[in-house]
Amino acid sequence: MNTSVVALKGVTRSFGGRSVLRGVDWRIGRGEVVGLLGRNGAGKSTLIECMLGLRETDAGIGGGNGENSITLFGEPAGDLSAAARARIGYVPQRSDLFEWLTPDQLLAYFRTLYPRWNDYKVENLLARWGFDPATRGQRIGRLSAGQQQRLSIIRALAPEPDLLVLDEPVASLDPVGRRDFLRELVDDVIERGTTVLFSTHILSDLERIAVDVAFLKDGRIALQAPLDELLEGTRRVSGDARALATLQLDQELGRVRHDNGAFSIVARLSAQESVRLLASPGVRLDPVSLEDLFEEVTR
Ligand SMILES: Nc1ncnc2c1ncn2[C@@H]1O[C@H](COP(=O)(O)OP(=O)(O)OP(=O)(O)O)[C@@H](O)[C@H]1O
């Protein structure tokens, strides 16, 4: 059975009368790796922070009860046990490291707070990610944004969390750093069955790892599916304008009217629909990229 590590029901959050989350229903199962996508300001950070009980929802910390609820490992997010808390690793969008400490001091401090701490992993990552003795002894406030982000990731991975939540973890990383990070993430998932949720704007990274993608749009999870399945089953349908104008597809994701009056429709197609469309004169089916999908779903 695939038990939910994260479960949200009817989660809402407004700022000054403006609704950002509008009743988010969402489940993330054990061992799933989910990339959370959405345009700037869609509410990804708000959703992540509400989910972790770090920010109030309209119903309070942890989403309230009954109709509006958030649970992590089956416990209410607003009232998590210390044991459940220790199972969660979080890398926020903005560095929350104590800037006056050195990396070594910071890691030594956090080591005391967790029941589990993988020293081998920490040393290995520090060495691989460019933390030489001088860098390890320097004040964190003086490190570059990318070095701070790497340290934040190492700190989150060290206690071997069962749920890892990362808010744009690679935004400040160079391409090599991003690749190393993704490799580490994949290894962790394979070795330990870690459940991972991360938000990102770098779509090419998602295409390199087997993930589910979830799109946040208009305050709800508009679509979630395994990325390969989504790309495999989605097509841009174009061609004869009259034929397409009246075309009804079960899972239309977006429809664009071009300057010349022609249409193109992006839709998830069943096998029967594909066969039917391919047999229609003047209709073309083309594959779409994740970028196309992002544009259509979040339009
Ligand atoms: N404390 C706050 N007060 C008022 N509005 C806020 C506050 N925090 C967030 N918002 C608003 O909520 C919306 C969602 O913000 P959020 O940071 O969650 O988006 P995001 O999807 O993470 O964006 P990005 O991709 O740019 O990081 C934005 O319009 C933002 O201005």
UniProtKB/TrEMBL annotation:
One Pfam family per UniProt: ABC_tran
GO-annotated molecular function: ATP binding; ATP hydrolysis activity
Signal sequence annotation: none
UniProt KW keywords: ATP-binding, Cell membrane, Membrane, Nucleotide-binding, Transport
Domain ABC transporter positions: 6-243
CDD domains: ABC_DR_subfamily_A (cd03230)
Matching InterPro entries: AAA+_ATPase, ABC_transporter-like_ATP-bd, ABC_transporter-like_CS, ABC_Transporter_VariousFunc, P-loop_NTPase
SMART domains, sorted: AAA (SM00382)
Protein name from the UniProt record: ABC transporter ATP-binding protein
Organism (species): Pseudoduganella lutea
UniProt lineage: Bacteria, Pseudomonadati, Pseudomonadota, Betaproteobacteria, Burkholderiales
